[in-house]
Write a structure and sequence with these properties.
The complex is a heterodimer. By secondary structure, chain A is mainly α. Chain A has one domain. Chain A contains six helices and no strands. Chain A starts with a helix and ends with a helix. By secondary structure, chain B is an alpha/beta fold. Chain B contains eight helices and ten strands. A six-stranded mixed sheet of chain B has the order 6-7-8-3-9-10, sandwiched between helices. A four-stranded antiparallel sheet of chain B has the order 2-1-4-5, with helices on one face. Classes of the chains: A mainly alpha, B alpha/beta. At the A-B interface, helix 2 and helix 4 of A face helix 2 and helix 3 of B.
Chain lengths: 103, 227
């Protein structure tokens, strides 16, 4: 397996970092819509809801990667998809937290 | 010849009750090129997908040295020293070949490998912009850059121009000369005769080793697989 710090600084991981905010925005829009429908603040921060949305976003990204067979590339590097994408969960919570503070 | 380092043993796969693989066996030996040949639909890709942990078999085991798995996982196998190149593109199309190789070895130890494979001209080109032959050679370079103990390739010559077929074949031979256990599936008789040291054939989901495949005339291959 390639060392994990090398994975986090690789151009491949950075390309996922570049794509993920767009998926996050889709997830945030859907989350805000359902919250508004339920009469809740659309940009509130609820850990459980954020965790569910985060998992859905990672599933969307994983599906996109599988379509390009990049799950095979990652596996050949010794990385399972969950291990490779897990750091993006941090990005989700940071973006959602900052969004809740700003709005 | 040394013992197999990597094997799929007694593999059964059924789809909708129909047997696809029946006690199928294939293995890879360090320092040799092993080919698996069979007609389209014979079960080559299914057997490879079990071997590299992309499919759960209904029976049988995958062995790597002393370890045995009923359901292997490619990322686990990769940590042991296996690399898999499927029959479709698997590199990140927006990255260059050099990006992939640097991810594996930031010290540029792969440069000699790249020169040996003759891929230096397009190493800084995005993978998505490469021709089929350039891409396949780059994939082989990425697979070999990890210094695997075994490399499994599904139809590595498919759709390639003759020039690139020969270069991929030479790359596989060179990898075997360095001690890598090379295993590939294909149905090009000439390339198999030129490239492989060992041969398994598969028909109707059953495999068997073929010992004298180099001495047989090519036309036999097209009118029936070796008995």
């Amino acid at each position: 397996m390639i060392p994990y710090h090398r994975w986090l600084t690789s151009r491949l991981f950075r390309s996922y970092l570049a794509v993920f905010p767009f998926i996050w925005m889709l997830g945030k829009a859907a989350n805000a819509f359902t919250a508004a429908q339920a009469g809740l603040p659309p940009f509130g921060f609820h850990v459980l809801t954020e965790a569910v949305v985060c998992v859905l976003e990672l599933v969307v990204l994983a599906t996109y990667l599988r379509r390009d067979n990049q799950d095979i590339l990652l596996a050949n590097l010794g990385l399972s998809l969950p291990a490779a994408l897990a750091p993006l969960a941090t990005l989700h919570f940071v973006l959602s937290g900052v969004g809740a503070l700003l709005v | 010849m040394t013992n197999p380092i990597y094997a799929a043993d007694s593999i059964d796969v059924r789809l909708g009750g129909r047997p696809i693989l029946r006690a199928a066996y294939v293995d890879a030996v360090p320092g040799t090129v092993t080919a698996l040949v069979g007609r389209v639909g014979a079960g080559k890709s299914t057997l490879f997908s079990v071997l590299v942990g992309r499919r759960r078999p209904d029976g049988g085991v995958v062995r790597w040295k002393e370890e045995r798995w009923h359901r292997a996982r490619l990322w686990r196998l990769a940590r042991c020293g296996v690399c898999f190149a499927p029959d479709r593109p698997w590199l990140a199309p927006r990255l260059t070949g050099a990006d992939h190789l640097r991810m594996i070895d930031p010290g540029n130890g792969w440069l000699s490998l790249a020169e040996e494979l003759g891929i230096t001209d397009w190493l800084e080109t995005r993978v998505g912009a490469l021709s089929g032959g350039e891409l396949r050679l780059t994939e082989v370079a990425v697979a070999l850059a990890r210094r695997p103990g075994a490399i499994v390739l599904d139809e590595p010559f498919r759709g390639l121009a003759p020039l690139y077929r020969d270069r991929v074949g030479r790359a596989l031979r060179a990898a075997a000369a360095r001690g890598v256990a090379v295993l590939y599936a294909d149905h090009d008789a000439r390339l198999v005769q030129e490239t492989a040291d060992r041969l398994f054939s598969i028909e109707q989901g059953m495999t068997r080793p073929v010992s004298d495949f180099r001495d047989r005339p090519l036309h036999e291959w097209y009118h029936g697989w070796p008995q």
